[in-house]
Amino acid sequence: MNSLLLIILAAVIFIIAYITYGKWLAKEWGIDDSRKTPAHNRYNGSDYNPAKPSILLGHHFSSIAGANPIIGPIQAAVFGWLPVFLWIMVGSVFVGGVQDFGAIFASIRNDGKSIGRIVEFNMGSTGKKLFNLFAWLMILLVIAAFIDICSKTFTSVPEAGTSSFVFVILSMLYGYIVNRRRPSFWISTIVGIVFSVFSIWMGMMFPMVLSADPVINARMWIIIILVYIAIASVLPIWLLLQPRDYLNSFLLYALIIGTVAGLLIKNPEINLDMFTGFKTASGDYLFPMLFVTLTSGAVSGFHCLVASGTTSKQIDKESHARIIGYGTMLIEGLLAIVALITAGYFAAPEFSKLMETGGPVTVFSKGISEFLAVVKVPQKSAETFVSLTVTAFAMTSMDTATRIGRYLFQETFDGADKFVLSNKYVSSLITIGVVWALTLTGYPRIWSLFGTANQLLAALALLAIGAYLMRQRKNASMIVVPMILIYAVAITALILEIRRNIMEMNIPLAVIATGLLVMSAIQFKEGWKILSSMRLHKRK
């Protein structure tokens, strides 16, 4: 199979889906630009702050993507490239895009409240607390997994560590310039691109090695990253998240453009098998493991937390929800296809060796650097650029997730002493403290459980969005089938996770998995009763 044909096919399908299905969703839900959004109604210059769609698109994409659409497709490629490609296409168009768009829309219509608040409105306070606790636990897993990925990347590619933190500092400077000096769009964009290039150059000139011992070096990076996300989670959105994520989008565009240019010239074939079977050598089955391994490239529950946690508070007009929610999910699907191509570029023996020695990030970096080499980009520069891109998105997801974790924790204890559990600084520190404990478990075990919890959260988010739409007497048919599919996938995978962790005597993760199973079962039962009663009422 020719890789260029694969990416062109994906791009064409995504464009058609955005124009047709995305437009239909907006019509069915009643998108209305005459209504003021929460960014205007509740403007406070910090969390509620209207943003230009181009800037918000970059922020939202960087926040939802992280390293997931890169890691997931490469890990799932053990089943063959065809099932991964098909699920990316179907999932992005009919499941992930619908969830993301629906979460932003429902949040906008509920004063910028999180999905947890929407659950409370439609399913009561108990449902809200269960959902918030479930989402909070899932967020702990994703932050811990990304911290581990970044710390190891900064250890193996020290240039990326320097580049990443120079990038953060310059992003804050960029945020100040844009929001206080208000230069023209094109001037600010050019400055932003120059800042990005300068970050890469600084990394190559001054690689940051904290310790000669790789293990100690990685642990030191974990502490630094924890301190960083603690600070980032309470800073005003306009100072770091919006500008940094906008600049991140240029890294992505450069990555995709450079890769496509490399593909045009190199025109590589997909060397991995099209389909390897329903069971891998390690004992994993296509169902449900393909679906929980490949998350953000198709559907991710984490997206609904970003969509309703930070993005909905920055939407300037309701019509922007379509490009920010649905359109961005399709862009992420395209990135997942790029990641799949880098995996497929290597023959099975080499792919397996790279996965064993360095993991998905190494496969991605090596593949992209070889594609960029044909357009005369030096290998070291390419590796630094790719590593910076991956870690920049991962760090964006981490501090966005920490901020959302703080929101969820505050909402759960809303009404308590405002200087204790509902205080934003206390809730951020508690969230980060638990994350630090989880990092001691290690990335491989965390990632497996995270993927399962992530899909289960997506099913519950679809349930909440469906309940909201039906309560508002709007069409929810596009929600029900994806919800049932994802819930079946997640419950099956979660049961397997509990069994695996018990057999490996990993009791903490087994307890978390069991708690997630019980909470989701209770909530799904209550939510389904509400959906059923609403359908009966509608028929009458």
UniProtKB/TrEMBL annotation:
It is a multi-pass membrane protein. GO terms for biological process: cellular response to starvation. It is found in: Cell membrane. InterPro entries: CstA (IPR051605), CstA_N (IPR003706). The chain crosses the membrane at residues 84-109, 130-149, 161-178, 185-206, 218-239, 246-265, 285-311, 323-348, 385-404, 425-443, 449-469, 476-495, 507-524. The keyword Membrane applies. One of its GO terms (cellular component) is plasma membrane. Its main location: membrane. Keywords: Cell membrane, Membrane, Transmembrane, Transmembrane helix. It holds the Pfam family CstA. Residues 2-353, 354-493 form the CstA N-terminal domain. Belongs to the peptide transporter carbon starvation (CstA) (TC 2.A.114) family. PANTHER family: INNER MEMBRANE PEPTIDE TRANSPORTER (PTHR30252), PEPTIDE TRANSPORTER CSTA (PTHR30252:SF0). This is Carbon starvation protein A. It comes from Oxobacter pfennigii. The gene is cstA.
